[in-house]
Amino acid sequence: xxxxxxxxxxxxxxxxxxxxxxxxxxxxxxxxxxxxxxxxxxxxxxxxxxxxxxxxxxxxxxxxxxxxxxxxxxxxxxxxxxxxxxxxxxxxxxxxxxxxxxxxxxxxxxxxxxxxxxxxxxxxxxxxxxxxxxxxxxxxxxxxxxxxxxxxxxxxxxxxxxxxxxxxxxxxxxxxxxxxxxxxxxxxx
Length: 189
Prior knowledge:
Strand order of the largest sheet: 1-4-5
Radius of gyration: 17 Å
Oligomer: single chain
């Protein structure tokens, strides 16, 4: 969602608290953050919201960002796709212009949760697809590749549901998992 859509939904009381389900209201702004995108640095200032029921506050991250990551979802996604194709962390880091330690961190995190992530995205894919049997991804050979295949299958099904909107794969993925793709505790066990 764009910033204006989030603002509109907050004003109309359409966003709910992830803790209690209450209505979220505007509550200022988070600190500005610089994210490394494919085309350079992207500066975001996320909206802060407060639940009218439980009074908890939340940061509403834009879909281009992932929780606890300095790179955009598209950069991390590109790295995961390259890893699924058999590339190592040094080669991926060179291609994306990122430190090897950063890419190694993404890949370690993704490989630990690959089986669970593949199951979650496959379930979402089945829920979205008109004919799930025709769109289920075939085994890709490794857990990392299977998970990336499930992610891209989910994005394909989501775009089919959205119609004419052309949303990039990794932005859809970030939106679906609330930016928690590589965050601790996701996907839930």
